[in-house]
Amino acid sequence: MGLELPLWDNIKGKRLVLASASPRRKEIMEDMGLAFDVVTTLAPDENNPANYKTSEEYVADTALMKAIEVFGRCKTETSLEEADIVIGADTVVVIQGKILEKPRSEQEALDMIGQLSGQTHTVLTAVQILKKEKEGYSQSGFVENTSVTFSIIDKVVQEAYVRSGEPFDKAGGYGIQGSASLFVESINGDYWNVVGLPKNHLYRKLKLL
């Protein structure tokens, strides 16, 4: 029998909504023992990085757009129940100052894996939490930073990985929890951040609500 911990007494009875269609984020929140609903955001999955001074500002604003869109829709759409807490998230890979989102073609996926081969890159995940207040909402958020180093990946392996289809719904064109784990030489930071949702930092933030 597992250890029962009073992890979420502070938000018990609150309607918690994840503003993401990501199956990985859903699984992570389930593993955290959270009771929540998923409402897929209609906000753009990708913003324009050129409008921001830093990658951190870009990813934080993109996550906020997603959270705000879902919070508003839960309040106005009759088919949705009003949310007490909405969590929006966005993950990007950054290498040599360049932001890599989800690849849109096989060639783009190949280009991304080629750039990451034998290099160290940064994974940024922004999390934005909106909490319903008497008037509007309060906002809290953070950006988690993890460094990942890939070993050199043979061209034939790169092509086979792209053909597998795994890269296409993942920032930077790879999933660390899948076959791409074989490419990872080292990691510095939160593993779950690379998967798409940093458990510990999210836990600490939710406990403050």
TrEMBL record:
Signal peptide stretch: none
Superkingdom field: Eukaryota
Cofactor entry: a divalent metal cation
A Pfam family matched in the record: Maf
Protein's UniProt name: N-acetylserotonin O-methyltransferase-like protein-like protein
The organism of origin for this protein: Phycomyces blakesleeanus
Keyword field: Hydrolase
SUPFAM superfamilies listed in its UniProt record: ITPase-like (SSF52972)
